[in-house]
Amino acid sequence: MTSPAPHRGTIFLEDAGVLEHRAFAGGQFVLRLAAPRCAAAATPGSFVHLTCGPDLPMRRPLSIMRANAADGWVEVLYKVVGHGLAELSLRKAGQTLSCLGPIGRGFTAQPARPRLLLIGGGVGIPPVVFFAEALAAGRGRFRPLVLMGSELPFPFEPVASRLPAPGLPSAATAAMPLLEELGVPSRLASLSGFAGCHRGYVTELADAWLSSLTAAERNEVEIFSCGPHAMLVAVAALARRHAVPCQVSLEENMACGVGGCAGCTVLVQTPEGPAMKRVCVDGPVFDAATVFSA
């Protein structure tokens, strides 16, 4: 008799009420849902599979940006791309969506590497925010630095950081207000010329910070990243160059979202050799070295 898959019994189906639905520039939205079972089980890197409208049978996978188990809500950030998310953007407070989640294996911090570099790009920002908030709740066991990049206006009003971030360019002063409140240093990058942001790629900020560390300090670092494919390739190369481990959260098109259709498989190098792994339940977080070769 085979043992059940590890994700069985951990994914919940809920009728989730829309609590808030905020629009931001660039067709971006932050959606907060009342989904207490999902909120209680969510971990940084996991996602939900949502219905977008009454006439759309196919769900859409969206990374969880925040979860509050005590109040029973989860929050997602998305950018309108395609008909499904356009329909989702029309949902109003008080309406109900079918929510399947939380799904997926998330980020895992190692006590031996307490210096965590979190890198988020575009709609890859949510898992990084969720992870940073969870780390802040750990009362100082880990020391995260969050770097975010976007060519669209950020889905929050950046503030001038009061938290030091040694090793980063002094001109990079913009930060995420939520992380400021939590005491987690963050810095922003963009090619769009936003005030206070580093004018360039977020990986340039990451490279500058890693280059400022001593060898002993780099031995305490691990990178965690989510974002566009090209950015993840660059982050994986950066990790190899500085000889630090790196976990990446992948984004793939999904149909079922629970491992049945195998439509989201990626090639992963394992100790037994190359294997096709499902991003939905085997990931979405993988060791960068196993999915991005040199």
How would the blueprint of this fold be written?
Elements: E1 12-24, E2 28-34, H1 36-41, E3 47-50, E4 60-68, E5 73-79, H2 82-88, E6 96-103, E7 115-121, H3 125-136, E8 143-149, E9 159-160, E10 174-175, H4 177-182, E11 186-190, E12 198-199, H5 202-211, H6 215-218, E13 221-226, H7 229-242, E14 246-249, E15 265-270, E16 273-278, E17 285-287, H8 288-291
Helix pairs in contact: 5-7
Note the beta-strand portion.
25-35%
End-to-end separation in angstroms reads: 40 Å
Q: Summarize the main sheet.
A: 7 strands, mixed
User: What is the CATH superfamily label of the largest domain?
Assistant: Nucleotide-binding domain of ferredoxin-NADP reductase (FNR) module
Task: Enumerate how many helices there are, as a single number.
Answer: 8
Q: Estimate nothing, just give the exact number of structural domains.
A: 2
Q: Which structural class matches the secondary elements?
A: alpha/beta
Regarding CATH, which class of the largest domain?
Answer: Alpha Beta
- Adjacency order of strands in the biggest sheet: 12-11-8-7-13-14-17
Give me the CATH architecture of the largest domain, please: 3-Layer(aba) Sandwich
Strand runs, count: 17
* Estimated radius of gyration: 19 Å
Q: Identify the overall geometry.
A: globular
H and E string: EEHEEEHEEHEEEHEEHHEHEEEEH
User: What is the mean predicted local confidence, pLDDT?
Assistant: 92
What is the share of helical residues? 10-25%
Low-pLDDT segments, ≥5 res: none
